[in-house]
Write a structure and sequence with these properties.
Largest sheet of chain B: 3 strands, antiparallel
Order of helices and strands of chain A: EEEHEEHEHHHEHEHEEH
Distance between the termini of chain B: 40 Å
Number of domains of chain B: 2
Order of helices and strands of chain B: HEHHEEHHHH
Number of strands of chain A: 10
Region (Disordered) (chain A): 1-22
Helix content of chain A: 25-40%
Protein name (chain A): ABC transporter ATP-binding protein
CATH superfamily of the largest domain in chain B: Winged helix-like DNA-binding domain superfamily/Winged helix DNA-binding domain
Number of strands of chain B: 3
Strand content of chain B: 5-15%
Number of helices of chain B: 7
Pfam family, one (chain A): ABC_tran
CATH class of the largest domain in chain B: Mainly Alpha
Oligomer: heterodimer
Shape of chain A: globular
Low-confidence stretches of chain B: 170-180
Radius of gyration of chain A: 19 Å
Biased composition (Basic residues) (chain A): 1-12
CATH class of the domain at 60-83 and 102-254 in chain A: Alpha Beta
Mean pLDDT of chain A: 86
Largest sheet of chain A: 6 strands, mixed
GO molecular function, one term (chain A): ATP binding
Structural class of chain A: alpha/beta
CATH topology of the largest domain in chain B: Arc Repressor Mutant, subunit A
């Protein structure tokens, strides 16, 4: 099967390359799909079903937020979707290919080429500069040094940190580190970006920066699945799935065209 | 207040004294904030509006006889409409709490369905606030206002989570591991 999600995103918004438009093949199926997904930890009576039978279709270009209280299984779900953990039951499909039954090496290659990860604690390599951190996964995926360098410069520019390319992570703020981590996640033009509490360590201003960046990715058609416990972050998504005890309790599409009608009521101008 | 009283009468006809006791249970220590005459005033208004009707009188141990009220057909309709209507982004905590209690007592709506509907509404409001905060023309001052609005909505959403846990009779985080 061919992968049908559009790879990558335009350097500038508004370029006439179909950004935000329906892509050829996008209707063929979800870019990411979970079928009857379950993950058990422990055995017998102490067995815990962290994920307890989840069916989920993520269409290309969707920004999906997974919410829920601590221990609801949302991080486990993300790890299963990203091939970082194997399900006890069920299947994970990425770009039309089943990935949960791949061998370790094939799975690692799939992760590197088709997925981008963003973590709460950034997970940057402290000894490498910002640019080197971004470049590394491209080189590991087989890009030429020249291509990797070019792509890195482009991404650093995109996340607004072109002037920090030679800084070490320790010389950057939390928000800047996370933006580097996002650039790194994007370097191989992944089908899907998976983000686990991407703003968990950030203050309000840095959180807005990250959300703005996600908004630009979404406008460029990037599929993004994020796990968050912050309703303000989830509210910027196209769709919010709430997990309870390892199963979806609610699945809501957020209308992005309501303007400020509700806020008008909230601010109560009529009184 | 009228809607709450009406919904409580759907379950069974009651007199003002019993109604007040029910409300006091639902409000707990906050029941003290309820004016003693409020229930009777509300009943009178509902009767005038043709939404309740006196079905009988009960002799009290002391004092005047107690008028027992039941909803009219129009009263039932009003309760159904109240349960179906969205409470609006400004609804306060007490109003929604009493609505959940009344929904359960009267059996006219599923409290969890009301919680779900409310969550969607709040998330949509929050989405508007966040989109506004991310808009290019949101300056520092306006951003501060939007942060206040967003934090308030988040507080409402967290309270709804607690509502959901209690009304669904489930315990929080029974399963799962790690940081979720």
């Amino acid at each position: 099967m061919t992968r049908n999600g559009r790879r990558g995103w335009p350097r500038r918004r508004g370029m006439d390359d179909g950004a935000g438009a329906v892509r050829p093949g996008a209707a063929a199926g979800p870019v990411l799909r979970a079928v009857g997904l379950a993950r058990v930890y422990g055995e017998d009576e102490s067995a815990i079903w962290a994920v307890d039978g989840i069916d989920l279709d993520v269409p290309a270009g969707q920004m999906l937020a997974v919410m829920g209280p601590s221990g609801c299984g949302k991080s486990t779900l993300l790890q299963l979707l990203g091939g970082l953990d194997r399900p006890t039951e069920g299947e994970v499909w990425l770009g039309g290919q089943r990935i949960d039954d791949l061998g370790e090496r094939a799975l690692a290659r799939m992760r590197r080429r088709c997925l981008g990860f963003v973590f709460q604690a950034y997970h940057l390599i402290d000894e490498l500069t910002a640019a080197e951190n971004v470049e590394l996964p491209a080189l590991l995926a087989g890009a030429s040094p020249r291509t990797a360098r070019h792509r890195t410069a482009e991404l650093l520019d995109r996340v607004g940190l072109a002037d920090r390319a030679r800084h070490l992570p320790s010389q950057l703020s939390g928000g800047q580190r996370q933006r580097i981590a996002i650039a790194r996640a994007l370097v191989n033009k992944p089908l899907v970006v998976l983000a686990d509490e991407p703003t968990g360590n950030l203050d309000s201003a840095a959180t807005l920066d990250i959300l703005r960046l996600f908004g630009e990715l979404r406008a460029a058609g990037q599929t993004l699945v994020m796990v968050t416990h912050d309703e303000r972050v989830a509210a910027t998504a196209d769709r919010v799935v709430s997990l309870r005890d390892g199963v979806p309790a609610d699945d809501t599409a957020l209308d992005s065209d309501t303007g400020t009608a509700r806020l008008g009521t909230l601010l109560n101008w009529e009184n | 207040m009228q809607d709450v009283v009406l919904a409580l009468l759907v379950k069974e006809p009651l007199h003002g004294y019993d109604l007040r006791k029910r409300l006091t249970v639902a409000l707990g220590p906050l029941g003290e904030t309820l004016n003693a005459g409020q229930v009777y005033v509300t009943l009178t208004r509902l009767e005038k509006a043709g939404l309740v009707v006196q079905v009988r009188e009960e002799a009290a141990v002391r004092g005047p006889k107690r008028k027992v009220f039941a909803p009219t057909a129009a009263g039932y309709e009003r309760v159904a409409a109240w349960m179906a209507e969205s409470v609006g982004p400004r609804a306060d905590v007490t109003e929604f709490h009493l609505k959940l209690v009344a929904a359960r007592e009267s059996g006219t709506a599923d409290p969890l369905a009301l919680v779900d509907a409310r969550r969607r509404e709040l998330m949509s409001s929050l989405a508007e606030a966040q989109r506004a905060a991310l808009a290019p023309d949101a300056g520092a001052e306006a951003g501060l206002l939007l942060e206040g609005v967003a934090l308030r909505l988040r507080a409402d959403l967290r309270w709804l989570e607690a509502c959901e846990r209690v009304w669904s009779g489930r315990t929080p985080g029974g399963k799962g591991r790690g940081n979720g």
